[in-house]
């Protein structure tokens, strides 16, 4: 056992350094003793082992249990400590308590005794002694079996294991009186006073539904000594059924669990009693540490036992949380972020789809508006177009009648008929060209782009509107580039721009005398790789402050105008990568310029 003398009291409260003797019935390797001493140290401070006189003695009764050995040990301890005045004696275990009571007069006369490691039942078998206090241990095999039955309700057998040492035999005797050969529907079998290998062989054949209660195992039948915790580990490794125990030091070394004392808290309780004694108070009343259910999470999983069957308040040791439990906050945070990002992306996709639909609708509306604007212009040209078409048709009719008369002559004038037929073909091609140009202008929704010569666009459009200019009394001067100006464009939309700009110029000069109604249409290649189309007139012009206003939709300086022509023309120009603007002009009137990027086909 362990003997420990601890100096705890302040110098102001004692005339001498306090002397405390702690006797342990086991040896220094027992984990239970180590845990109790650690709890005492928590209460009595770090320096209690160094201040004053401290004595540590281990009786080691499990290995040296012969009466002669015990007498020699008694004489040695009396020789060491019998002449000293002890302030307290701490006793760990019932066998150490019997040893101290039998030798108290010579070993620790008059010293208060503080004990632990003794149950209430064991305490009643001890002689009454004055100045005795301590903490009862609550080792409860019955409670351990009750816990096991909650986890293994299908169990039909209880196997109880004890060793062959003196302390093991005491536990075997106590277990026999508690469980006998049958306990609450369980058949009870004892594995005691056997070699460790024989115990392992027995438990290896057990059905997994069996309950194995491991009490203590300090020595086997061959005389081999063990630290009980090591024996538990060896037996558990071979067992075919779950193990349970009554010591908290077994948890983590092979048992599923049990109803156990907190050995560290037991040490703290002893430390508090010693402090009261050293402070001059009467020994406190005997305290009781309430045992609690505790299990090893790893063993629960090993045997597939249901955690939900555990009683309320069970301490789960060596718990290994799942990924969800360990990182729940992080997972929820990441999930929230991903959800927010997904929602954002979805919203952006929906928004983009809506924007694309809106753009498509806007483009369709723009095409329709362009078509309406173009048809309005064609409506204005309808009279001139009818005149232009009637001219070749009338010529065709006159030539056809003349040819018919010449054919009927005798002899027919073949040479004259041939010339008439050439005229008919020429007039037909002229009418067909006018109709083709008109159809091209009237095409709805045309969006195909192709390489066209800007000069050809101007020529075709001016030819189509020639009669309108004549009707308005306007003269058109063409100053076109000598080289082709190839641009990637939509032919009808380019014609619409030229038609709008030239007719606007002719309308602007309607108040001028006929000889002054001259508009100029010019094209050229710019140094920056663009083509330019300029339309100049001699009308009143557009003031600088209104040059941007005229491009706004529905802005018009004419009472009968809708104000959409120039707005549409600028949109067309921008869609072609160009621009349309009024610019300063030294001569009277206005100058509007269309610029378009040249393609590789430009000269």
From TrEMBL:
<keyword id="KW-0597">Phosphoprotein</keyword>
<keyword id="KW-0808">Transferase</keyword>
<dbReference type="InterPro" id="IPR036890">
    <property type="entry name" value="HATPase_C_sf"/>
</dbReference>
<protein>
    <recommendedName>
        <fullName>histidine kinase</fullName>
        <ecNumber>2.7.13.3</ecNumber>
    </recommendedName>
</protein>
<dbReference type="InterPro" id="IPR036097">
    <property type="entry name" value="HisK_dim/P_sf"/>
</dbReference>
<dbReference type="InterPro" id="IPR003661">
    <property type="entry name" value="HisK_dim/P_dom"/>
</dbReference>
<dbReference type="InterPro" id="IPR004358">
    <property type="entry name" value="Sig_transdc_His_kin-like_C"/>
</dbReference>
<keyword id="KW-0418">Kinase</keyword>
<feature type="domain" description="Histidine kinase">
    <location>
        <begin position="384"/>
        <end position="600"/>
    </location>
</feature>
<dbReference type="Pfam" id="PF02518">
    <property type="entry name" value="HATPase_c"/>
</dbReference>
<dbReference type="GO" id="GO:0000155">
    <property type="term" value="F:phosphorelay sensor kinase activity"/>
</dbReference>
<dbReference type="InterPro" id="IPR005467">
    <property type="entry name" value="His_kinase_dom"/>
</dbReference>
<dbReference type="InterPro" id="IPR003594">
    <property type="entry name" value="HATPase_dom"/>
</dbReference>
């Amino acid at each position: 056992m362990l003997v420990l003398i601890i100096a705890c009291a302040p110098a102001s409260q004692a005339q001498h350094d306090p002397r405390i003797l702690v006797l342990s019935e086991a040896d220094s390797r027992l984990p239970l003793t180590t845990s109790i001493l650690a709890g005492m140290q928590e209460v009595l401070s770090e320096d209690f082992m160094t201040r004053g006189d401290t004595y540590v003695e281990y009786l080691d009764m499990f290995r040296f249990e012969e009466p002669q050995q015990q007498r020699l040990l008694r004489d040695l301890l009396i020789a060491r400590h019998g002449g000293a005045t002890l302030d307290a004696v701490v006793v760990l275990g019932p066998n150490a308590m019997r040893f101290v009571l039998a030798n108290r007069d010579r070993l620790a006369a008059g010293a208060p005794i503080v004990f632990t490691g003794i149950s209430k039942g064991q305490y009643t078998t001890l002689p009454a002694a004055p100045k005795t206090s301590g903490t009862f241990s609550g080792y409860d095999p019955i409670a351990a079996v009750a816990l096991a039955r909650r986890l293994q309700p299908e169990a039909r057998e209880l196997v109880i294991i004890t060793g062959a040492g003196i302390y093991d035999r005491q536990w075997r005797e106590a277990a026999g009186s508690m469980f006998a050969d049958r306990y609450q529907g369980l058949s009870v079998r004892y594995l005691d006073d056997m070699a460790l290998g024989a115990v392992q062989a027995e438990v290896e054949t057990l059905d997994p539904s069996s309950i194995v209660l491991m009490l203590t195992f300090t020595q086997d039948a061959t005389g081999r000594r063990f630290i009980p915790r090591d024996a538990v580990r060896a037996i558990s490794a071979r067992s075919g059924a779950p193990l349970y125990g009554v010591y908290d030091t077994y948890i983590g070394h092979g048992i599923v669990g049990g109803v156990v004392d907190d050995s560290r808290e037991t040490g703290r309780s002893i430390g508090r009693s010693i402090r009261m004694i050293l402070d001059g108070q009467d020994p406190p009343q005997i305290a009781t540490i309430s045992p609690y259910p505790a299990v090893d999470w790893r063993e629960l999983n090993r045997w597939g036992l249901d955690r939900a069957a555990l009683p309320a308040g069970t301490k789960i040791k060596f718990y290994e949380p799942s990924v969800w439990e360990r990182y729940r906050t992080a997972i929820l945070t990441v999930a929230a972020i991903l959800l927010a990002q997904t929602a954002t992306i979805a919203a952006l996709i929906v928004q983009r789809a809506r924007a694309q639909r809106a753009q498509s609708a806007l483009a369709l509306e723009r095409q329709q508006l362009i078509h309406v604007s173009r048809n309005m212009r064609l409506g204005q040209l309808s009279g001139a177009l009818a005149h232009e078409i009637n001219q070749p048709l009338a010529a065709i009719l006159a030539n056809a009648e003349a040819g018919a008369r010449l054919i009927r002559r005798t002899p027919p004038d073949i040479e004259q008929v041939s010339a008439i037929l050439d005229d008919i073909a020429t007039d037909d091609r002229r009418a067909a060209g006018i109709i083709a140009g008109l159809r091209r202008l009237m095409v709805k929704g045309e969006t195909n782009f192709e390489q066209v010569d800007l000069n050809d666009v101007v020529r075709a459009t001016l030819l189509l509107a020639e009669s309108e200019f004549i009707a308005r009394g306007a003269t058109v001067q063409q100053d076109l580039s000598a080289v082709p100006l190839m641009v990637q464009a939509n032919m009808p939309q380019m014609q619409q721009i030229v038609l709008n700009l030239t007719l606007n110029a002719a309308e602007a000069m309607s108040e001028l005398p006929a000889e002054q109604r001259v508009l100029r249409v010019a094209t050229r290649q710019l140094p920056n790789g663009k083509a330019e189309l300029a339309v100049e007139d001699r009308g009143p012009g557009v003031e600088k402050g209104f040059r941007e206003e005229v491009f706004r939709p529905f802005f018009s300086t004419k009472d009968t105008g809708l104000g959409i022509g120039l707005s549409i023309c600028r949109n067309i120009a921008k869609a072609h990568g160009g621009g349309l603007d009024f610019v300063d002009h030294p001569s009277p009137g206005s100058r509007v310029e269309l610029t378009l990027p040249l393609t590789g086909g430009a000269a």
